Amino acid sequence: xxxxxxxxxxxxxKLKAEPSPAEIPRALPMPLLRLDNVTKHYRADNQDVVAxxxxxxxxxxxxxxxxxxxxxxGKTTLLNLAGAMDFPSAGSVHINxxxxxxxxxxxxxxxxxxxxxxxxxFFQLLPTLSVRENVELPLLLAGQTANTQQAIERLEWVxxxxxxxxxxxxxxxxxxxxxxxxxxxxxxxxxxxxxxxxGNLDSTSAEIVMNLLRRTADELKTTILMxxxxxxxxxITDRIVALxxxxxxxxxxx
Amino acid sequence: xxxxxTLFIRLIVRPLGREPGRTALTIFAIALGVAVxxxxxxxxxxxxxxxxxxxxxxxxxADLEISTVGGLDDALLASLQALPYPVRFSPRIxxxxxxxxxxxSIPVFGFDLIGDRSLESMAPPKSFDLDxxxxxxxxxxxxxxxxxxxxQLRLTINDQTATYTVGGILETTSSQGAPRPNxxxxxxxxxxxxxxKQGRLDSIEVFLPERDDRRRNDRDWEALISAALPAGxxxxxxxxxxxxxxxxxxxxxWNIQVLSYISLVVGxxxxxxxxxxxxxxxxxxxxxxxxxxAGRAAVTLAFLxxxxxxxxxxxxxxxxxxxIMANGTxxxxxxxxxxxxxxxxxxxxxxxxxxxxxxxxxxxxxxxLAALAPASEAARVPPSEAMARGRHxxxxxxxxxxxxxxxxxxxxxxxxxxxxxxxxxxxxxxxLSALLIIAAAACATPAIVDRLAxxxxxxxxxxFGAQGILAPRSLSASLARTSVLVAALSTAVAxxxxxxxxxxxxxxxxxxxxxxxxxxxxxxxxAGQREARQYPTIDPAIADRIEALPEVQAVDRFxxxxxxxxxxxxxxxxxQSEVLSRLGNLGFLDGSPPQQVLAKLGSxxxxxxxETFANHHRLNVGDTLQLPLGGQLVDLAIIGIYYxxxxxxxxxxxxxxxxxxxxxxxxxxxxxxYLADGANPESARAAIENATSGFxxxxxxxRTLRERALVVFDRTxxxxxxxxxxxxxxxxLGMAGALVALVIDRRRELGVLRFLGASAGQIxxxxxxxxxxIGLFSNTIGLALGTVLSLILxxxxxxxxxxxxIQFHWxxxxxxxxxxxxxxxxxxxxxxxxxxxxxxxxIEVVHEx
Lengths: 254, 849
Ligand SMILES: Nc1ncnc2c1ncn2[C@@H]1O[C@H](COP(=O)(O)OP(=O)(O)OP(=O)(O)O)[C@@H](O)[C@H]1O
Ligand SMILES: [Mg+2]
Known about the structure:
heterodimer, A: alpha/beta, Rossmann fold, six-stranded mixed beta sheet, 8 helices, 10 strands, about 30% helix, B: alpha+beta, nine-stranded mixed beta sheet, about 55% helix, about 15% strand, binds adenosine-5'-triphosphate, binds magnesium ion
């Protein structure tokens, strides 16, 4: 049984009224992200899979962490837990001091809207929306109305403002990923979670995207967790977290 | 073949099982479509097939029947029986009695119980003792009416209510399952008295000698007997009346049968959509199969098999459901048949093989036809598609422009078909025209949906934010699919709208006509029987007594006779044109003032006919109408055609003086009473009631009569509305199923939205928005298409099959209500897909590749 499905569904009226950030439980003095002894089990075909095993990790504002390890070692699982998309089976995840476990869907949504941005390996731009509209989307979902300016600013930040009117299928992979980064940053989240952001890019595009992420951490003071298979990419991050079979093997500086 | 089977299992059966909810919705939608066809077929046969049964099972098969308008003279029987032929002649009186106090009406037959062997097929054929035969209050009752000998029954026949004693119970000896005989038999003399037909017979049945007497064939006999008959008396093969009644009702049955297919047409869109979805989803797999050596035929077969599978399940369920629905439908149809056409009791619902054939042909046929296009598209998927990973339907843009051209061509063809004449009285080209315009609308739908979505986008975005921008976008993005849904729902909406406009216009026309027509203050008719084409008579003395009342200014004595003209059952009526022209009203087609025409009516052998009568028989003012009256053929000059909405068969009306010249019976069947100026209606009513005491008659004022007419009217169309509502239901069910598929196919996008900060509520709203937009688009297109369809229904189909002039009129309140309900229903159809969307696990759907 997957934990995500056990979340008690919030009543319809409660979901309609989106919680304001004020409703999110008070933050304690703590690092932006703390994983405390986090374990994650999956059940598949009546077998217990331990995707993460007693992982403890802190990340400070502006810190750029890369997570490396073989396929299936738990990188994606870790990012999802850190982004309040899922609950740990044991241990706790603190985002800006708030423990995610036991929160209702509306509260998790509010956390994501305020603190978290996601970047995916396959870009995941919405094909029916233009570049600008894609970038605006998180703001729209959060109920903000006057948002075009903010979107354009973010597109300028990733140097894609000239493409604002295009549809995603009219862009190259590298351009799509830059748009995706603008989208993930449009609401100025404190935490950016990137799952193999350069996994589908050629080396030139990859370099552009990596420099962009580096700049994001340095200039916007955004904490970044990036899962990657690329040693080269890991080298420009602040710390490298090596996972093996769901455990932290070592944390090293590049 | 084995390749196709493997493909079928791998590509079709397994995926269907993986989405049981959607599969069930699709099957149920087809089942409903089939069920409606089955139910109408079964109920239609049961409701209209029975009027021949009771007498025919009772008397065995007479070969010929002699009859004439107003009845035959008793003396004719004697002269026929004196002929030196081995032919048996058997007299008949036919009518209806109302059982009191239940007010159930049943057929009554008068037989020559002494001389006749007709009743021998009944058990027990107990000898009728002479004693009871001479008494006029003895009846023999079918076992469906009474249970034991000696039982007392109170019966109203014409304007008299009296107590009768059951002299014996009649039971059919035929098969076990047959319905119990539901009629009364009297001796001929008693029947003549009860129906005030002294000295007259309704018909004489003719039994020819056994067939092995080959010296003369039936035709020779017919010629021999005809020669012995006076002019104006007709000799017809027995059963031709049944055939004529059938023919008369065929337009009614046809129209209702055609309406019952609407749900199937809607179902066809849904099957098309289902198969198209499954082809789009499995392009990759099809490519792999093709690369591995599967032939095109195998691929086509596999997808046709999916349609056949869904069709078969739907047909089986539909047969069951239809049988159940038929129970509720029979009485509704029978009531309509009784009030509009002929008296009959509904027969049994018989589940004959032809119903199964109809169900299978319609259910499976529609499924396979609808699947043809997507299945052959599947066959065109090249093996190279196996390599094209992750290609999405969004890439495949529809050629909306080309479709618009098709739509234009179809619309022109539809207009052309509407101009053509009916075939054999059936408005076949009218139906074709309707079908073509529906097809035209379906072709135009993608372009309209796309355009509407674009226009609405900014408005929705401003009003609703993210969901407002996403919903119309994803509808245009999956235009191929959404437009099929919109086409299905808008077809159903259009049919509802068109029928609502047609019926509403018709109803308004009838109300105006009733108000104009019902000018008298009170109306009287015999209490005996109130069904179509039955004119039980009342004592002429009643009319004289009422006319003598100081409160009464005039009485119009009307007498109706059921007649067959050119094989069509219609009505011959006689009224007092002098009274009608002075106090009443009648609208003539050519706008002539009624006073002028009616003044001429009484002056000579003139006749006025109804619009329907004129249309059916293609008659005009100035033509001659030849009718058999009282032993001679009378030529009547047509001097006017008037609007009338009271019977489908139509009527020909002469003046009472003309009628009495040829037919001696002075008994009227209906009285219209005009009060003197200033008379108090209440005291007038009391005086009239007093004047009719001792007679069983019903007295009604014009308002009651009008209300009664509208009750009959509304009952007639209840079933029509029921059919439309079911079609909408089918569309909504299918839409729910298709939206589930749309959700499943967009699951990754929905998952991404959750990552980007969408709440579960927002995802739900998004899907509900989409279903709401589909409802809105469908209503828009449906309203426009429905208006066009209503024009076809009113001015082509109705005109050709019934011949009525209907004034176009919008039933605005009804339409607004219906469209609102449909819109709400469309949103409700989104609830289940929205649930599916909310339950998707975003982590899984985003990372599956
Ligand atoms: N929904 C799930 N149900 C069952 N097992 C799962 C589920 N999601 C992940 N797992 C298992 O958990 C383990 C960790 O998976 P995860 O996706 O985190 O690995 P990963 O490091 O991201 O691998 P990759 O580099 O291939 O993306 C794997 O063994 C995987 O099979
Ligand atoms: Mg991964």
